[in-house]
Design a protein that fits this description.
binds ligand AR6; about 170 residues; about 45% helix
């Protein structure tokens, strides 16, 4: 059984095997979740990101790659690139966001993780509407869990604000 939970807090303080980062295609660091992860995890994560991009180029939207977690209380950081709202049709953006969640869970499973935390990908700088993002995230994760029963023990949706916590609790109810 995989438990799906919503918690309010900062992604960098959550103790799970893998934390998902809302990154950009260049894996270059930035603000929001990305900035917080690199600030708390230290420079080794960015060094690994640079090597990945040098080897395989920018990360396409909807895909995910794994690095170590530096000083964070996790074993891995899974970097995924969400869609920028307005750059795709709504249907495409929903599919790309769902793909971020699925690809991240695929990576977590491939790396032997049992617990994963997600931020609300694309809902900050990238401007994805928060209600639609929460509906999409929970549906994508539920679908993945049905296809991979028992692959993971816990999947956490880490909400930065009380409004997002309410949103996710509603979706998970
Ligand atoms: N813990 C949990 N959630 C957070 C945290 C945190 N420490 N900080 C922000 N949030 P964003 P995006 C919430 O902008 O929209 C970066 O510069 C925030 O309130 O981090 O996917 C990257 O480098 C929002 O709901 O990610 C990219 O260039 C959500 O996390 C770009 O931003 C996501 O906001 C990615 O934009």
């Amino acid at each position: 059984m995989t438990r799906l939970e919503a918690v309010q807090g900062d992604v960098t303080t959550i103790e799970v095997d893998a934390i998902v980062n809302a990154a950009n295609a260049q894996l270059a660091g930035g603000g929001g979740v990305d900035g917080a992860i690199h600030a708390a995890g230290g420079p080794s994560i960015l060094e690994e990101c640079r090597r990945i991009v040098a080897e395989r180029g920018p990360l396409p939207t909807g895909q995910a790659v794994v690095t170590g977690a530096g000083d964070l209380p996790a074993r891995h950081v899974i970097h995924t690139v969400g869609p920028i709202w307005g750059q795709h049709t709504e249907a495409e953006a929903v599919e790309l966001l769902a793909s971020c969640y699925r690809s991240s869970l695929d990576q977590a499973m491939a790396h032997g993780c049992r617990s994963v935390s997600f931020p609300a990908i694309s809902t900050g700088v990238y401007g994805f509407p928060k209600d639609l993002a929460a509906t999409t995230a929970v549906a994508a994760v539920r679908e993945w869990v049905e296809e991979h029963p028992d692959a993971l023990d816990r999947i956490l949706f880490v909400c930065f604000g009380a409004d997002d916590l309410e949103r996710y609790e509603r979706e998970l109810a």
